[in-house]
């Protein structure tokens, strides 16, 4: 028997409507004490809510009743769509407490859904990401994951792995009986194939993780190239100080942007040069550090000044190279072997093309791939581990060691989805596995 829990599912604060959600074995009883006879399942029904102790009317509300297991949590659940005032919420919450329900812990509804097999851990993470999604691409990725796209793939791998393990155990039994068998060879081939498949999935350049967390981009260049002017133009506000004095920017100035559906943290940095000024020199160190950490570098040159050797090295493939101040001089055909984008932060010329180039670079580094990709370091760690255990199984000198390695691989996948336990799946597989014993 689970406690009956409740929580405000809509945003806090005064609002037209507030949604209180309830879940737990006693949910139906609580609902009846507040709202009278249970309404039709999943049909909105208008009810007077009364405090059970005093009979006082607390609100007139829409009530929804979701008997388990066809509910989000898999348990008996309900929703109360109240008028969103503070006194209403307090009154109804107090009445729920009187009926023995308790406030839910953070994530407790989804935790119960997981425990009742309504979703696996990756789908639960997808729901959390959906709530946090700021851009359309993030929303699509989160929806796909919440819908079980990763869960399905990982569960498929877990099933294959478990079968491998069963075959391996069978091979050991055969060996004990002194019978010849090819099961062991088949296991090694299949384990190698699965390891390769997992590695292909891992080898995605971190797109899903970057889309989820946002991309780091940095503007770099010589002093006075117009870096801060460009940041301001892209941000649409005067975020960084612009002046004709070289060495204006010292601290890293950050703005949040959306480029091609990818959230981007764009940083303006100090102009790169040798300097005796201690503060400016620290700014240059910070600029270089930011360049190393960045997923995307925008190298800015002034069209009217020949690029100096110190900053030329920044113009490399993979970098977005910009010749700014195109209103003063024609942009050179190439800088460091890369054709620059001709832009003027002053006149606005070329800014749309720059935005497009940045959006293309951002979606190439972060974004939806055709197949559902992993989205968290946790996924990467568990899958890397599983692939390494499969390698061990392939190379194991003794069947018992191969078996151990396969078990460890199953456990790695199990941690990822929160689902597979070695023993119970083995029971299932051995149940229909004929080894003549
Ligand atoms: N004509 C022209 N002037 C520009 C353009 N972009 C920037 N400037 C001017 O160039 C000067 C330097 O601009 P900033 O944006 O401060 O340059 P910065 O690269 O951030 O400079 P530091 O922070 O000192 O490294 C300012 O006087 C700007 O008004 C442009 O596209 N055309
Ligand atoms: K400047
Ligand atoms: Mg600047």
From TrEMBL:
**Where Mg(2+) is bound, by residue?**
228, 249
The record's keywords, sorted A to Z, are:
Cytoplasm, GTP-binding, Hydrolase, Magnesium, Metal-binding, Nucleotide-binding, Potassium, tRNA processing
Q: How is the cofactor bound, as the UniProt entry phrases it?
A: Binds 1 potassium ion per subunit.
Pfam families found in the cross-reference section: MMR_HSR1, MnmE_helical, TrmE_N
Q: Which domain of life is it from?
A: Bacteria
Cofactor requirements of the protein: K(+)
What EC numbers are recorded for this enzyme? 3.6.-.-
Q: Subcellular localization, per the record?
A: Cytoplasm
- Keyword Transcription in record: no
List residues binding (6S)-5-formyl-5,6,7,8-tetrahydrofolate: 21, 79, 118, 437
UniProt binding sites for GTP: 224-229, 243-249, 268-271, 324-327, 344-346
Q: Does the keyword DNA damage apply?
A: no
What's its job?
Exhibits a very high intrinsic GTPase hydrolysis rate. Involved in the addition of a carboxymethylaminomethyl (cmnm) group at the wobble position (U34) of certain tRNAs, forming tRNA-cmnm(5)s(2)U34.
Relate the assembly described in the record. Homodimer. Heterotetramer of two MnmE and two MnmG subunits.
Family per similarity comment: Belongs to the TRAFAC class TrmE-Era-EngA-EngB-Septin-like GTPase superfamily. TrmE GTPase family.
Q: What is this protein called?
A: tRNA modification GTPase MnmE
């Amino acid at each position: 028997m689970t406690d009956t829990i409740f929580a405000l599912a809509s945003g806090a604060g005064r609002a037209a409507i507030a949604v209180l959600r309830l879940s737990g074995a006693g949910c139906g009883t609580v609902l009846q004490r507040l709202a009278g006879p249970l309404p039709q399942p999943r049909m909105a029904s208008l009810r007077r809510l009364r405090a059970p102790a005093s009979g006082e009317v607390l609100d007139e509300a829409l009530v929804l009743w979701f008997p388990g297991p066809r509910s989000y949590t898999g348990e008996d659940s309900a929703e109360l769509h109240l008028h969103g005032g503070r006194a209403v919420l307090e009154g109804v919450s107090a009445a729920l407490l009187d009926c023995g329900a308790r406030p839910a812990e953070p994530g407790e509804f989804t935790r119960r859904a997981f425990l009742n097999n309504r979703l696996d851990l990756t789908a639960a993470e997808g729901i959390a990401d959906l709530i946090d999604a700021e851009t359309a691409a993030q929303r699509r990725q989160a929806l796909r994951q919440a819908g079980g796209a990763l869960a399905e793939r990982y569960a498929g791998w877990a099933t294959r792995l478990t079968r491998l393990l069963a075959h391996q155990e069978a091979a050991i039994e055969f060996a004990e009986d002194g019978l010849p068998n090819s099961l062991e060879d088949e296991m090694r081939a299949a384990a190698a194939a699965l390891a390769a498949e997992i590695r292909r999935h891992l080898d995605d350049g971190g797109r899903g993780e970057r889309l989820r967390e946002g991309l780091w981009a940095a503007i770099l260049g010589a002093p006075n190239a117009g870096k801060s002017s460009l940041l301001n133009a892209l941000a649409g506000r005067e975020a960084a100080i612009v002046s004709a004095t070289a060495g204006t920017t010292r601290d890293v100035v950050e703005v949040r942007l959306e480029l091609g559906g990818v959230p981007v943290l764009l940083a303006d940095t100090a102009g790169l040069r040798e300097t005796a000024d201690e503060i400016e020199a620290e700014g240059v160190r910070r600029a270089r550090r930011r360049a190393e950490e960045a997923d995307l570098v925008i190298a800015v040159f002034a069209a009217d000044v020949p690029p100096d050797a110190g900053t030329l090295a920044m113009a490399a493939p993979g970098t977005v190279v910009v010749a700014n101040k195109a209103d003063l001089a024609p942009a050179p055909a190439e800088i460091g072997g890369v054709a620059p984008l001709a832009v003027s932060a002053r006149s606005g010329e070329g800014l749309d093309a720059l935005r497009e180039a940045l959006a293309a670079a951002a979606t190439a580094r972060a974004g939806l791939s055709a197949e559902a990709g992993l989205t968290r370091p946790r996924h990467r760690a568990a899958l890397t581990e599983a692939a390494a255990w499969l390698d061990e199984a392939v190379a194991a000198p003794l069947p018992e060691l191969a078996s151990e390695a396969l078990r460890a691989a199953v456990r790695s996948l199990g941690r990822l989805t929160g689902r597979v336990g070695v023993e119970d799946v083995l029971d299932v597989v051995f149940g229909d596995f004929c080894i003549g014993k």
